[in-house]
Design goal:
Blueprint lengths: L3 E6 L7 H15 L3 E6 L27 H10 L2 E7 L7 H8 L2 H4 L11 E7 L10 H13 L3 E8 L13 H10 L2
Parallel strand pairs: 1-2, 1-3, 3-4, 4-5
Helix pairs in contact: 1-6
């Protein structure tokens, strides 16, 4: 059965290393017969959650007008959510985190629509590396999100040592991302 995969990217570099990881993963997803959409959080402003607790009071997940209005329908259709981000201060970018925070609306008991997402993937590129523990914050955050939402973690591709655009090409991680996409 074909799955609908939504890739949320967090990088302000459109052709950066995490974007290359996302592209390779999407190639694998499509080769496996699934569909994929991308939402670039760095280029579609999503305001941070303001904890107003007014979710759904206007018929939409969030009362504030921002690009979450474009993202919400994509989230509602997705079977798989992919978080793709460079590592910023040991975690995901603020742009991606703002979009993730707004998933709160779908967890509310009064939410008229729930997410059907059942699986998730983490893709990340960074100057730092896993051996030095640089990814521990991001991995813990990702795992906590997946556990809390009862999503099945389908895998993580962590491409350390990738500072300059294109460095990920030399790591073998693009092939891993392609293969992970094929296994969904």
């Amino acid at each position: 059965m074909a799955k609908k995969v939504l890739v949320l990217t967090g990088s302000p570099r459109q052709l950066g290393n995490s974007a290359l990881l996302a592209d390779a993963f999407i190639q694998g997803v499509k080769a496996a017969g699934h569909t994929a959409q991308v939402f670039e959080t760095a280029f579609h402003p999503v305001l941070p959650c303001k904890a107003c607790d007014k979710c759904w009071t206007t018929g939409k997940p969030c009362v504030f007008k921002d690009d979450f209005e474009k993202l919400a329908p994509m989230l509602e259709e997705a079977d798989v959510l992919v978080l793709c981000t460079p590592l910023y201060w040991f975690n995901m970018t603020a742009q991606l985190k703002a979009a993730v925070d707004k998933l709160y609306a779908y967890m509310k008991p009064n939410a008229p629509r729930k997410l059907k997402i059942k699986e998730c993937v983490l893709l990340s590129a960074a100057e730092g590396n896993e051996q030095d523990g640089d990814y521990e914050g991001l991995k813990a955050t990702y795992k906590a999100i997946a556990d809390y939402l009862k999503w099945t973690d389908r895998g993580m591709i962590l491409a350390g040592g990738t500072w300059d655009a294109g460095d990920v090409i030399k790591t073998g991680k693009l092939k891993e991302a392609l293969e992970l996409g094929r296994t969904l």
